[in-house]
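User: Fold this; tokens only.

Assistant: Input:
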Amino acid sequence: MVFDRVIRQVQFLGGLSLLWLLLVCPVQAKAVPDVVDVTIGLMQLPKEGQETYRLIHQGGPFPYEKDGVVFGNRERLLSAKPRGYYHEYTVKTPGERSRGARRIVCGGLEVSKPQNCYYSDDHYASFREIVDKK
């Protein structure tokens, strides 16, 4: 009986402590990066990535039906832009039956003349901006 009473008091005080923490110490929201801060050179991409990049700049044809579809940026790792700004393309993964995890996402007003492109080898968990040093 006494044990149950002690447990109820601890629960009550724990609830009050949590409420106090929430009111006095507001949680800081994690800042979303404005742009990817890591780059990768075009020649550092796997050969399949270099080929996909070349196809993007020549306007296709693309081997996968979903290549060129609008990328929603739901992960919010890329700069916030209006819907339709980003498009995604599959980078073939040798030995993979499906599209695999590798993608290139490009942004810009003209699809075949993107302002910037990003490479992801982990299905949008991270991005590296592609730098084409010509």
